[in-house]
Specification:
About 35% of the residues are buried. Mean pLDDT is about 80; it is low at about 1-30 and about 260. A hairpin with a 2-residue loop joins strand 22 and strand 23 (about 335-345). Strands 13-14-23-22-16-20-19 form a 7-stranded mixed sheet. Strands 3, 4, 7, 9 and 10 form a 5-stranded antiparallel sheet that branches. Strands 12, 15, 17, 18 and 21 form a 5-stranded antiparallel sheet that branches. The chain is mainly β. It folds into 3 domains: about 5-170, no CATH class; about 180-345, Sandwich (Immunoglobulin-like); about 345-480, Sandwich (Immunoglobulin-like). It has 6 helices and 33 strands. The chain is elongated, with a radius of gyration of 40 Å.
Length: about 525
């Protein structure tokens, strides 16, 4: 075999790795690993994934010139047979590259068919030399490898082809890693932070989400999931999927690429909806088709879907979150990236006192919004009624609170322990829960006996911002009722005061009259 063919073979096989490349991010380096085979070559996998196992198969033996290691020829491994194929021919014991193995547009690269043939046959024509599992996300070097052409597989399911025609070969593990970016594009009743990662929403309203997933080179086995907390219900039938140019925007109500259902299953992958799933179970899953991923290399998958803030939502004390995740690789050993979005809900807390700042029970309140409608709470779901009579009335009460003197350990140890676990509350409070931002009016609709009606009170919940969540989700208003004014009784002054005043007026008039007559004389 001539030198030109030998050199072409070395170069062509070395370039095969390009056909399986995408991008990932590197971090701290891993320690070198000795193959234990006593060879002279080494292979460094750069940007290797943490906890993913790389199997190194030698598929061809390399005969390398000791003085000039760029001069190399290849043979089948001892005891192995290269089956007849269109890409690699064995002649006089050496491997010759056929025209079909050459990429039509790049003579330095193997054709897709040649790579596919190696992928299908590496285990039978080759032998596993070693494996390595990086402990960090970065370079992983395997030393003392026997010379040869190596085919590397990973537990992510993607093959990487490399060679060791020189002593220190390097391959970049650019498995089809990707990322996920989840945002809240809007809420029907509420507001969204500037970064679109959080929203303040009324319980019962609809939340609109967007997820963007870049399609990496030779992407395979992409699976999207979204797991929602109990306070959010995925809206079945809301999923829309688009494939667009990188970073291209998609209108909220865009159509054409996909409407959920049959089209999703046949065009983009398999869509599984499980609205109301509990625990760590996914509310929605999409297993994307590998053929679709291959046809759209470098583009973005964009998902639009909705959820409803339900009656189980956390109000004022925390968020109702959901985690979107993109998985890739084997089902049992995947890599992944995830992103959260958080939905909050606010409340107006009413604290009722009398004129002496003491807790006062017996008052009832209703809440009116800026449109003049009245708050109604039905099993946690908020709505607004036109008629005041249809609004929900709350009554601030003292209720009970934890007793600071109660000792749970002492109570468990002593059956006669008599300190109560709870005591009567010191404040009369109640709240209107599940509110969005806005200005509201507290109206006292039931007045305690013996007290005057309190004036209407306006309260404001600020729009969502990264600064006010959760600090300002509870807006407290203290409303005071004063005792009624005591009217005079029949045993009091009565009409006496009027007689006294009248007599004084008559006396004053007489004095003025006498003075004028004297002045006329």
């Amino acid at each position: 075999m001539g030198k030109t063919i030998k050199r072409f073979l070395a170069l062509a096989i070395a370039m095969a790795m390009v056909l399986a490349m995408g991008t990932v991010t590197a971090f701290a380096a891993n320690a070198d690993k000795d193959s234990g085979k006593g060879g002279k070559g080494s292979l460094t996998i750069t940007e290797a994934h943490k906890d993913q196992t790389y199997d190194l198969y030698r598929v061809f033996e390399a005969v390398v010139n000791e003085t000039d290691n760029t001069k190399v020829s290849y043979k089948p491994l001892s005891g192995k047979t290269i089956p007849t194929n269109d890409y690699f021919k064995v002649e006089n014991g050496y491997i010759i590259v056929q025209d079909a193995a050459k990429d039509a547009t790049d003579v330095t690269a193997l054709s897709a068919g040649a790579v596919a043939w190696l992928t299908a046959n590496y285990a039978t024509i080759g032998e596993k030399v070693t494996d390595v599992t990086p402990t960090e996300e970065d370079n992983q070097k395997v030393t003392n490898l026997p010379y040869g052409y190596y085919y590397v597989t990973t537990t992510t399911g993607t093959a990487i082809s490399v060679d060791t025609t020189n002593k220190d070969a390097t391959v970049v593990d650019k498995n089809p890693g990707t990322s996920i970016d989840k945002t809240i594009t809007g809420v029907a009743d509420g507001s969204v932070t500037a970064d679109k990662n959080k929203a303040l929403a009324q319980v019962g309203t609809t939340v609109n989400y967007e997820v963007r997933i870049p399609i990496a080179n030779n992407a395979k086995t992409y699976k999207f999931t979204d797991v929602m907390t109990d306070g959010l219900t995925y809206k079945a039938g809301s999923m829309k999927v688009y494939v667009v140019e990188k970073d291209a925007a998609v209108a909220e109500n865009a159509t054409g690429n996909l409407d959920a259902g049959t089209d999703a299953a046949t065009k983009y992958g398999t869509l599984t909806e499980a609205a109301g799933a509990t625990g760590e179970n996914a509310d929605v899953t999409i297993a994307f088709n590998d053929a679709m991923l291959a046809a759209n290399n470098g583009k973005d998958i964009v998902l639009h879907y909705q959820a409803t803030v339900n009656g189980n939502a956390v109000v004022a004390s925390g968020s109702n979150s959901n985690t979107a995740t993109i998985h890739w690789g084997h089902e049992t050993d995947t890599l992944e990236d995830d992103d959260d979005a958080e939905v909050y809900s606010a409340k107006v807390k009413v604290k009722k006192i009398d004129g002496n700042n003491a807790a006062l029970e017996g008052a009832g309140f209703k809440l009116k919004n800026s449109e003049g409608k009245w708050y109604k709470n039905t099993a946690g779901i908020v709505s607004w009624e036109t008629a005041e009579a249809d609004g929900t009335e709350i009554f601030p009460v003292k209720g009970t609170q934890a007793n600071p003197d109660y000792d749970a350990d002492a109570a468990a140890a002593d059956p006669d322990y008599d300190v109560p676990e709870t005591i009567e509350g010191t404040d009369a409070v109640a709240s209107f829960d599940g509110l969005k931002d806005g200005t509201y009016t507290l109206v006292e609709t039931t007045v305690p006996d013996g007290y005057n009606k309190a004036a209407d009170t306006n309260v404001t919940i600020k729009p969502a911002s990264t600064n006010n969540l959760i600090a300002e989700l509870t807006v407290e208003s203290t409303v005071t009722n004063n005792q009624g004014t005591e009217l005079p009784s029949t045993g009091g002054m009565g009409t006496t005061i009027f007689y006294v005043v009248g007599a004084l007026l008559v006396l004053a008039a007489a004095i003025i009259l006498i003075s004028r007559r004297r002045a006329q004389r």
